[in-house]
Amino acid sequence: TRNFTQATFEGAEKVSGEYLNERYIKKIIGCATCGMRCDHIAFVPEGPYKGTTARVEFECLWALGPNCGVDHLDAVIEAISQCNYYGMDGISTGVIVGFAMDCYEHGILTKKDTEGLDLRFGNHEALVEMVKRIGSRKGWLGDVLAEGTMRAAEKIGKGAVKYANHIKGLELPGYDLRGLKTAALGFAVSFRGACHLRSGAYSPDVKGSVDRYKIEKGRGKIVMDLEDQYNVIDSLILCKFSRGVYYDGLEDMAKYYTLATGIKMTAEELRQAGERINNIARLFNIREGKGTREYDTLPPKIMTVPIPDKGAAKGSYVNQKEFDIGLDDYYETRGWTKNGIPTEKKLKELGLNKFAHIVKGKIEKPKKGAK
Contact, 343 vs 363, CB < 8 A? Predict the structure, then answer.
């Protein structure tokens, strides 16, 4: 909450699913033939945002709500509606506003910068106004924040990068990586940055199948397997929400593929297809100058600010030593170099020889005498 300043929220009950359903949800719909119905349509019946209608899901509710210290659901619904109007991602927009609020509370941004807007955490009116300014690029700050957290932090300066929660330019979603360390590794190595839909590496942390407060050897394999499976899910255009319900892993997906196309497919063939996709994406990032170890990183808050709240997670954060263990393990499992570059041997193994020119000259040769 509050741009990852805390990990708990005193206004949680006011933004809970129960509170939302009781007061604002008017209709729950789903895709054709799907019985899961995950689309919740909210309507504000009274107050300053009366008449606002928007689809509400938990990530956008978190980003524009607790992440900004806001516990007014009517304002959150209005902010989501404004994101829809301007064609902006609700998660990123909420994290950008939360970043600006953090900068404001630390004196990096002033009322002169905000043109009189009291941009403190919890100010729901400022939240809605700032979303509008970002969407329309109104004023200096609206224009700067419209560039996203990474670029905005660079333009604002004065140490603002310390409060910028992004990976490879993509804002963090609603998972506190300080206490979900498999997820932290998964988000760091993701080819599109802080995306919770690239591997679902938070799952073993949340389920308790691993110790979520540490990174150790073996986590790289967990992340890799999940990434490769998610690549297949996306390629087959399956819904991630239905994983474990309508299908259970690569075996089921291989059967679906065979039934739909008449072409025999095995789980291992699908797994290798997912691995190829991840390597091609990595090669794209390398070609564009953003695909090496220095970009597989975490925001400063995740690595330097321990969780302050009372509870099991108190004091937890990702330190550099364990993070390096995780990166080394992941790269080794992938068949990449210590710098995160796919080897020519790995590319040949995956039938990606034609892309080998991208990595040539970028792989350091072992020094003489080195083991």
Answer: yes
Tokens of 32: 């054709």
Contacts of 291 (CB under 8 A, 6+ apart): 191, 282, 283, 284, 285, 340, 341
pLDDT at 365 over 70: no
Instruction: In the chain, count H helices and then E strands.
Output: 15, 5
**pLDDT score of 338 more than 90:** yes
Q: Shortest CA distance to 234 belongs to which of 208, 199, 207? A: 199
Residue 167 CA to its chain's centroid (Å)? 8
111 and 23 in a common domain: yes
For the cut 90, the answer to whether the pLDDT of residue 242 exceeds it is no
Distance separating alpha carbons of residues 312 and 147, to the nearest angstrom? 37
DSSP letter for each residue of 258-312: HHHHS----HHHHHHHHHHHHHHHHHHHHHTT--SGGGS---HHHHH----SSST
Tell me, yes or no, whether 130 and 200 share the same domain: no
Identify the CA nearest to 70 among candidates 5, 128, 4. 128
- Residue 298's pLDDT is 98
Which of 164, 188, 218 is where one domain is finished? Answer: 164
Q: Tokens 């100058």, residue?
A: 289
Q: Is the separation of the CB atoms in 74 and 125 below 8 Å?
A: no
Residue 306 sits in a domain of what CATH number? 1.10.599.10
CA distances from 229 to 5, 224, 238, 287, 329 (A): 33, 9, 11, 24, 19
Query: End-to-end distance of the chain based on CA atoms, in angstroms?
Result: 46
Q: Rg of the chain's alpha carbons, rounded to an integer?
A: 22
The arithmetic mean of pLDDT across residues 257-280, rounded, is 97
Q: Domain of 160?
A: 12-164
Neighbouring C-alpha atoms within 13 Å toward the C-beta of 242 = 16
Contact 339, 321 (CB under 8 A): no
CA-based nearest residue to 37, from 245, 259, 181? 245
Could you tell me if residue 209 is inside a domain? Answer: yes
Compute the distance between CA of residue 188 and CA of residue 18 in angstroms, rounded to an integer.
33
Q: Which two tokens stand for residue 124?
A: 């729901």
Residue 154, phi then psi, degrees to nearest 5? -65, -40
